[in-house]
Amino acid sequence: MPIARSSALLAGFAAALALTSCAPKKDTIRIGEFASLTGKEAAFGQSSHKGTLLAIEELNAAGGILGKSLELITEDNQSKAGESATIVKKLISRDKIVALLGEVASSRSLEAAPICQAAKIPQVSPSSTNPAVTETGDYIFRVCFIDPFQGVVMAKFAKDTLKVRKVAVLTSVSSAYSVGLAKYFKERFVADGGVIAVEQKYSEGDKDFKAQLTAIKASGIDGIFLPGYYTEAALVCKQAKDLGLTVPVFGGDGWEAPQLVEIGGAAVEGSYYSTHYSPENRSPAVTTFLAKFKQRWKNEVPDAMAALGYDSAMVLADAMKRAGTTEGAKVRDALAATKGYVGITGTTTLDASRNANKAAVVITVKNGQFKFVESVAP
Amino acid sequence: MPKPTLALLSAFLFAFGVSLLSDRLDPYYLDVVIGVGINLILAVSLNLVNGYTGQFSLGHAGFMAVGAYFSAAISLFVAPAFIGPAGTSALSQGAFFLAALATGGICAASAGLLVGVPSLRLKGDYLALVTLGFGEIIRVLFQNIEKFGGALGLNRIPAYTTIFWVIAFLALTLFVVTCLVHSTYGRGFLATRDDEIASEAVGLNPTRYKIVAFVIGAFFAGIAGGLYGHFKLTITPTGFGFEKSIEIVVMVIMGGMGNTLGVILAAVLLTLLPELLRPIAEYRMIIYSLLLIVMMLARPQGLFNFKFGQTRS
Q1: How far apart are CA B272 and CA B28, in angstroms?
Q2: Complex ipTM above 0.90?
Q3: A2 touches chain B (CB under 8 A)
């Protein structure tokens, strides 16, 4: 009897699985999105999703594209490895999407890329900066700059603006992003005549950095390069101040989150990071975007992930309009031909490696606010 | 021919039959089925250690990582030198995949032996902690080895895993575990679990039984890892963390420790459940966890364990 009950249960689940699939509606263009809406990197995933959704809603309010309205189908990967491959297959085979948007984290974009490439579905990543992502194949694009460029930007900024000569590099070994960024920074900084006095390592989730910072302090440096994510960056700044280290600390776009100031407080004042856009930019495109975003999402100020999420959807829509169709190969060719598209995060031109060449901005923290310092062109 | 061997051969035939149809199956359903199959191999092999032999191991994802990394390394770095990048026949591809999986399995089994020999003299909570620590060490090691891609892991692994390989290796796992446990030798596993001192008194060597169970469990975890790597096409160290080990342990506990049929049903259920709950998006993990709590309260002996206590009487 209990066996019969449990097999009935299983049969029920199988039936439910069959029912979850639904046939695509006739006159919509289905665009898939996979994002880390929950889990460790939910802050990035949520931001990016809000930007993407706003773009889709805006396009629909303006009458859609190619005479059809757009439908965004979003799936969450819980920031977990292995999940993205499954949901991207689902989006392609069950939901019949014509193009895919996502992800923030490079490792998860890399999971989806071979699947999109095999299915000939164009994928546009909003903010994966690791070079390996678009190397997967000719259907994989991104609308942000890549880490080698970001590393160069911060090396130049350290040398020319901060005028530091001897720096320490503190890398997160558990993040491919951090390791890559550190490598490109070091190459450029040393080539420009700078000295890397000491290199220290940590892992994401670490809370105590006193040992690394003591070693850094002993080496007598005049700056710390800290490529990593906001939580650890804030903690490092705090503990550096406690140890009496007053040299400037600077990092990359992984710092960009309100939590940096919430956790770091006064300690992150006067630190710098490079990112994709600044809400302080007074260009008309950014001003309208800011107003629309605040209206749609309860007065929230969009960060770089939101702006890139918005741009990724807009660049895709622009390519579909130019292609005149949603057919994979044609959209891919149109995407590859993207030139001088003016978006929120600057002018997007996709190069032969399907990466965007665009300017980076450097931001500093002042009175608990993110302030624009300078813009660095490629 | 003995019945289990016949069952194994017919399972291979069945796998071959299904693989002929796999082109017509929906890729998403195929993906889910392969995912279920890999989790089944993991759960059934862990059941040999945690269920039948009564040793609480929390390091199964670590062995899976060893298998995944080494078999992917064979496919990525060694195989191209022999078969070249293009123009490979399905047969040579299959042979190399089999070799890659075997290497992964053997590496994982060696890791199992390495951890097992010193730590299996420990009992209960202590062993759980040692295996937990081992799993973390493996993850951190792969994270720091440049050759294995560091934090980004390995990507562009060839897509060799098909439904055929998964069903075939699942059948093999079931065959080995079932035959082993039901053999005269295998009764020693149950004896070790039920009463270590008594089994020692009748002349059995509990530590040896524990190590054998551990090594065989690790071997199949390594195979599952290899299948996983060639299925997801990219592996990162974070994917083989503590959470993955817990996931497999939950399947074993929910199915009823030492009950292969129960563990199979639990693994199928726990892999399908998150997929079925997908429509409710962000809340699905809450519902999933709630279901786990309710199920464990209602059936603490294991959801599908209907003959609990029989092996003890």
Answers
A1: 12
A2: no
A3: yes
